[in-house]
Amino acid sequence: MPKITFENLNVTIEVSKGDTILDASIANDIPIQHACGGFCSCTTCHVIVKKGTENLAPMEDDEHERIQGVERQSPTSRLGCQSRVMGDVVVEIVNIDQ
Ligand code: FES
To answer: Ligand 1 within 6 A of 95 CB?
Structure first.
């Protein structure tokens, strides 16, 4: 099973292949913000991929448009609700739900 490591929480979880980062996070009580409920409209689920960008399903147009202009944008920025995990990844959650 693929693994997601949340670098800034120092936590690794196992996920089913094809799950989104957001769905896997919610299922494992990882405190990632998701104000719109996973509908690609708020960007609060922004993550920066540190390793394994090739192990996420490619970005689609909606996500690509949304990710423009997010705070702390990086070349490896993704939206957790749109990123399907196909292999091991290491990410930083930008907006931790306090
Ligand atoms: S949860 Fe709103 S864009 Fe991902």
So the answer is: no
* Of the candidates 74, 85, 80, 75, the residue with the CA atom closest to the CA atom of residue 95: 80
Q: State if pTM tops 0.90.
A: yes
Q: Please report the domains of the chain, with CATH numbers, ordered by start residue.
A: 3-93 (3.10.20.30)
Q: How many angstroms is it from 4 CA to the middle of ligand 1?
A: 18
> In tens digits, what is the pLDDT along the chain, a chain of 98 residues?
999 999 999 999 999 999 999 999 999 999 999 999 999 999 999 999 999 999 999 999 999 999 998 999 999 999 999 999 999 999 999 999 88
